[in-house]
Structure formats: C-alpha cells, structure tokens
Amino acid sequence: MEELLVWIARGLVDEPDAVQVERIDEGDVVVLRLHVADGDVGKVIGRHGRVARALRTVVRSAGVRSDRRLVLEIAD
After folding, report:
1. Of 2, 14, 27, 31, which cross-links 21 as Cys (Cβ 3.0–4.6 Å)?
2. Distance CA 27, CA 15 (A)
3. Beta strand 29-35 with 20-26: parallel, antiparallel or unpaired?
4. What is the distance between the alpha carbons of residues 30 and 69, in angstroms, rounded to a whole number?
5. Neighbours of 13 (CB within 10 A)
6. According to the model, what pLDDT value does residue 53 have?
7. Which residues of the chain have pLDDT under 50?
8. Is 68 helix (H, G, I), strand (E, B) or coil?
C-alpha cells in the first residue's frame, strides 16, 4: 500500500524525490503518514480537501482487503 501511495503522491507534487511514507502500526490500525516538501502540501490536500479525501478513500479501501483499518495522515 505504501508504494501505491508514494506513486500517486509523486504524480501530484513538484518535488517527487521529497515524497516519503511512514508506516506506524497501532494494534489493528495502521497509520500511513505522508511527508512531502513544504511547497507541495497544498497540492496533496487539494482545493477544499478533495485530493486528500480521495487519497484517504483509496487507502481505506485497501485496508478492507487486509482486515486492518488504514488511516492516512498528511504531515506538515
């Protein structure tokens, strides 16, 4: 799942080399923390949060297959 998130995020930002995903396991919840360059945070969030909402939907859908709850956080 992390590779898919990195691939999608690199297509959205101006500095694709700065994209990183940190995985944090907390019991049955897996938190994926997306790190991008400071100037690219707005591009990952999108207008009115639409891009962030779409990314969270993709991540949540992938968690259904693995019977774990996946949560996406966008780090500042």
Report:
1. 2
2. 33
3. antiparallel
4. 6
5. 18
6. 96
7. none
8. coil
- Asked if residues 16 and 10 have their Cβ atoms less than 8 Å apart, the reply is yes
Predicted pLDDT of residue 21: 96
Q: Directed axis angle between helix 50-65 and helix 2-12, to 10°?
A: 160
Tokens 């009115």, located at residue: 48
A 10 A CB-CB count for 47 gives 7
DSSP type of residue 26: E
- Based on its alpha-carbon atoms, the radius of gyration of the chain, rounded to whole angstroms, reads 12
Decide: helix, strand or coil at residue 5: helix
| Stated pTM of the model | 0.90
